[in-house]
Amino acid sequence: MEIGGRCKTRLFLFGPKLVSRSDPRGIHKYLVVYALFSFVLLTHASPAKSCDKSCNSGKCINGSCVCERGWVGDQCQHCQGRFKLTEPSGYLTDGPFNYKFKTKCTWLIEANPNAVLRLRFNHFATECSWDHMYVYDGDSVYAPLVAVFSGLIVPETRGNETVPEVETTSGYALLHFFSDAAYNLTGFNILYSINSCPNNCSGHGKCTPGNSAASRVYCECDKYWKGEACDIPYCRNNCGSPDHGYCDLTGEKLCVCNDSWQGPDCSLTVPSTESFWILPSVKPFGTSLARASHKAVVQEKVMWVVGGYTFNYSSFQMILNYNLESGVWNTVPITGGPVPRYGHSLAAFQDDIYMFGGKLEASWGNVTDELWVFNMPSRTWQRRSPVVGSPAQTQVYAVEGHTAHCVQLSSGETIMLVIFGYSPVYSYISNVQEYNLMWLVPETKGAVPQGGYGHSSTFDSSSSSVYVHGGYKALPAGKYGLVDDLYRYDVNTRTWFILRESGFPRYLHSAALLSGTLLVFGGNTHNDTSLSNGAKCFSADFLAYDIACDKWTVLPKPDLHRDVNRFGHSAVVSNGSMYVYGGFSSVLLNDVLVYRPPSCQAFMAEDGCVKAGPGVRCIWSRGRCVPWEPSMANGSFSPVPFCSYKTVTVDELCYKFSDCGSCTANTKGCQWCDDKKCISASSNCTTGVKNFTECPVRIEQVCSKLANCKSCSLNLNCQWEQNHSQCHSLPAQQCSEGWSQVGDACLRINSSRESYDNAQHYCKNLNGNIASLTTSKQVDFVLEELKKLQQEEKRLSPWVGLRKINVSYWGWEDMSPFTNSSLRWLPGEPSDSGFCAYLEEPQVSGLRANPCTATAHGLICEKATGYSRGSCKKPCSLHTNCANCTSQPMECMWCGSTRRCVDSNAYVISFPYGQCLEWQTAECMAQNCSGLRTCSQCLDQPECGWCGDPSSTGKGLCMEGSYRGPMKRVARQGQQSQTHDMNLEPASCLNDKGFEWAFINCPACQCNGHSTCVNGSVCEQCRNLTTGPHCETCMPGYHGDPTNGGKCQACKCNGHANVCQVLTGKCFCTTKGIKGDQCQLCDSENRYLGNPLRGTCYYNLLIDYQFTFSLIQEDDKHYTAINFMASPEQANKNLDMSINASNNFNLNITWSVGSTAGTISGEEVPIVSKTNIKDYRDSFSCEKFTFRSNPNITFYVYVSNFSWRHSVVTLLVFSSFFHPSCFLSLLLVAAVVWKIKQTCWASRRREQLMRERQQMASRPFASVAVSLDARGELTEVLQPLGAPKPVAMEPCFGGKAAVLTVLMRLPSGFSDLPPPGQSGLIVASALVDISQQKPLDFKDKSQALKNRKALPPAHQGTCV
To answer: With 160 labelled, which of 283, 390, 1042, 1221 sits at a CA distance of 20 to 30 A?
Structure first.
């Protein structure tokens, strides 16, 4: 702009300008300006394309997201790989959205050596028991494991923290996350900090550095707060000083109550009408005490803890004891004895503790049937090898997750009961096992229970009853999950009873019996679906079952300074209190929780005594309040007088019981009606059973509780149905009418007179065979039947299935030898002329021989019962490698980290603490790191690292290792169990020799040893017959595995293929009819003849037939040629040929009279050679080709160079007389034309269907706005709601059918909100009939019925 304010436009022209040679700077100046101007023009002419969505962990380049290392997804929103974090603080997350299926992410946090790292879980939501986050105190998965997180982690009470702050002390922390292929939830957000105070001192103190540079920071707590994180309050309300107690500031800083006061703050009287929880300090504190799935018993105020699961068994103490009065722990040093185990049972009797079964986790997870006895005074172990009971009860089940009690029977005998459990061989066990110097599996009465894993059981000695609650069990229709069942087992009568269910399914919980009340605490409440209490694994639920009133009550959760959610803990009772120890809540716990219920003695009036509870049941007796005991009920189901009114049972509550015993042995008030259904006892019934002792035999119900084939096969009255994976009872009569069941066979005696051969035909017509009487049971039955017929004056001498095999040998028809034992020859028999035997004298079991053509009076047939007991598949637990395990993909799952094969219906209970890092059901990974051939595969496994060789071309070796270098397993001499200890082995990959150790990221150059790299990571030129971005595959025409320096070799296809399968070398033959891995065989089963090793293969044509070859399948895509051969059948007839195809092809026709035609050395005379044609017709004259003098003449047809997709080749060969006016020729020509028309019509129909598919696939889509109303009160179930209104109705071609799409809300259980990470909605579609939607009134319908004239059929709609 000039000074005057006018805009002046100037035009700059860039072009060639003449300059002198002496001024080269001018050229350079114009070149620079020209380049800048071109760049500006290009930039404005083609601006960078933006991305539709934000790139979370990546950059937008040309409209798509390019992810940073370790992130994947269209928005770079999912983690997948390894990360290294070195900042003093930060966070790690799976991404902003739900994590993806099959996710594997690993984070390594590095600090100074021995620095303290703290992890705080701000958000965590994964699928319980399937998707896990592992935290290791070190730089590899071989470091000590400190926590395993899974499920939904939220505080139970405001201010409480469900997830403890995880701490590592090695200076490293390695976190590994794995998700499977099912539910994917919102994931996690984890903060970390180095050398910070725990939980920021919980807001009740200040973080103070240590006195020296090497010391760590610590919390200085405010008054009335203590603990490492200042999170434990003490001396609340000054302990009610001075009347109730005082605050002891010299020791543990807690309240010391006066004799008449109790509670954490001395606010409750002794005795008290209120309950309370306390959390005593652990003395001495030690992480080696932490464990889960252990067992505990009490003996003289000492709690003995045996076994259990722990992360690291190197410092594991098998036996601990805890003084319940002083609160002091002691380890019990033992020499010898059993190896560590968990999931076992424990039962105390006098001075001995009996331990049975369990899983030997340190020995590859074997489940054992060992019985060990620990003597407490001498502190010694002894293994018992008991004898087995009677043959019918010989099976002793090796189980885990069971319970056991030592009980004294009314006879004075003491036995150990083992209840339920899971067996890797026999699945979920529903039996009770008894031990008293010998094992016994008794037959029980009453209800038919369903056994399982992880239930709780408590024994009440006053009523000799065991109460069993919950567990993980087999359910109907082949399903598995948690249950809320409650059973009572009477040990004297061996009778089961069903009590009221709790309504809260769980397993791995605890139960204790106090004051007539069953107290259930904690457990895993996730029912393997996203609707199971969110996705929460750990529970602090506290339930009470009132035995007297058959009533469940939910008690308040423990009101302590922190959450106490857990499963896998134990509970014992001593001095009127319940002691809960250990368990698992992402970390292994070593705390003791004490619950003291209300005391009946504290109620001074009868009214308050009777109304005491919930959590305690009291009765007023002789002027004072005392606890109610189950023995007071005398085994009756009738409610006691002080219970509230019990509603009358309705039929709906009884319908779920499917057998007479369960129907009549429960507290619902049911009866078994007409031997087919369970209804209320107050309902009318023709023939009703109200007492279980009157029930018939219950074989069918017992069989239905057997959970797999092996357990079903143990019961001779049951049979396993493989198709439905269910065990059914065999019918009482397994033979059809007219047959008699004898053992495993059906026999039939007939009185007709027949020869032996006719008798055999008669039996075969009845789907049987002439009887081979090889068992004494069969012989006894036949002789008894013949004697009965003699008494009726019907004497028979029937044929039996015994005949002479050679001069001196007789054998039965089933090929078994004749032993002359149960049946014997009469004197003088067998005669030389006799070749077949019949039963002459039943009185003496006498046989006589006769010619087979002679007749005998009668015959005996046999056949199988029709219920053959097939063999069972090998149990999953017996497979020792991945390939064998995954050969049954729907039944077995392979865990590579533990090298175990488990039943798919027991995966959750096989690894309750996340022991399996990853599982497979199809493709098997290498069993160890050395089997992985590329760096990317290697670093995909958390236990592996990559040692790159000095060539820097991508070659290397995958080996077990850590961030600091390779590792090697330590061999410990004399170690009983498998050791997992690993030591650094830096010599395996030395940097000073040019090797490069990679643990976080692979080296940039990854060319598998077949190329060097340019620009750091781009393979310059693949050598050694390889191709691909990383030279990872063989070139076309070659096969092999070129990864990590592997070699490629040429495909060997005998000239019939150009390419082969890259890894296996299997050739893709190009000529139809040639098969084999090397195209070395003709498909002779489908009429292809020839020798592909010397020539090719031909389809052998029949004269006067039409042949159509459709090459439209995926398997046909490599075919480009097909060959035929035809020989004239008659010498005086011509050979006419017609060929047409849907696509163009090349054609060659030859003829030959030699037997070597079609091979390399054969002689063929060419007749026709055509290219790029679609059809061809010709007639080969019998005179021209002298059919009469050349009887071996053969015509060879070569059709080639056609495309695969939608190719159809039709060929017709027929004979004709050589006369132009012959009527037969015209007729055949008409037939050819008709056939061609049919073929064309079929082709057009296929094309029409293809167009319809394309039309359906390209139909427009539209958006639909959906408004969801807030949920109100529940509506009546039976109230009609009307048909759902569709989101869309898409009619199909023809207007007769349509695709109906509706939006449906999924059930959410007790919560109004869907589970985290899910919308709670699904889109459902169905194919519906819309041809009858026109409304008709009643008059029109009646007139239509009178009109009998058939209407023309409507055109059938087509819907793809």
So the answer is: 283
